[in-house]
Amino acid sequence: MTGFRSSMSNFPHNLRVVCTYYSSISEVCRRLNINRQQFNKYLSGDAYPSQHNMHRICDFFGVDEDEIRLPEEAFKKLINMRPRDRYRQNADAPYMPHLIALFERGREALLQYEGYYYRYYCSGARPDHIVKALFYIGKSGVNHYTNSISRYEVDDGGRKLRVRYRYLGVPILVDDRLYLCEYDPTGKDVITSTVLYGAFRGRVDILVGIQTNVAGKRSRAPSAGNVVFEYLGRSTQIRRALSGCGLFEWESPSVAEWVRNRLEQHQVSRYMWTVPE
């Protein structure tokens, strides 16, 4: 612990320095979603952030964890060499008030969506197969986030190849439509967009919609398809739920018939399809 405290001895001062790029400590706390009383302890050195909060603070101010622990003069010299706007996180950008308003508009209603889901969609690499993934909507501070995990095995020239994808994202609820913006935190080269609504009015146990993606790492071409979310509950046995995930043939008994029916595209015209009612 002594070594840890020694390595963090410059953190309170350096944190106070980057906070000066904002109009007030209250603004910083509000944007970080960290309790003001707790944040004051970080500033005074009476307490140190958890690893999770340290990641959030460093990401917010655009510095590395090693940098924010540098000796005071070295840290000042470092940030003075960088554009001042880097530390403001686009606080004054014209789109920020609109984004904040969208988040706040559906924040309370999102509570009913919290929990675990099975997520079903057609594989981009194997269109006659269905991916069954585990999806989660949770809350950190006052904001919600999503975590989606899919893992399965594919036959790669006679040997089994394990495939695992993880997407982190942000949910925004507007009226009764749930919008998801997700990205691959590993490769950081894929972003997906999904629009969902309750299959039955007034219920959120089955969500249907359309999601976009790219066909694969080697392709730039986007793709889109129907998607189904099946609610498992606010809590679940994660290992057991993950064991039910995988890549399944279209007629596999691991995928219910009603799910397959929902995944089929309903042609509206030659140029458009929609989700089956």
TrEMBL record:
Looking up InterPro entries in the UniProt record yields: Cro/C1-type_HTH, Lambda_DNA-bd_dom_sf
Ranges for domain HTH cro/C1-type? 24-68
Output the CDD domains linked to this UniProt entry. HTH_XRE (cd00093)
Superkingdom assignment: Bacteria
Q: Where is the signal peptide?
A: none
User: Pfam families in the record, alphabetically?
Assistant: HTH_26 (PF13443)
Output this protein's name.
XRE family transcriptional regulator
**Native organism:** Mesorhizobium hawassense
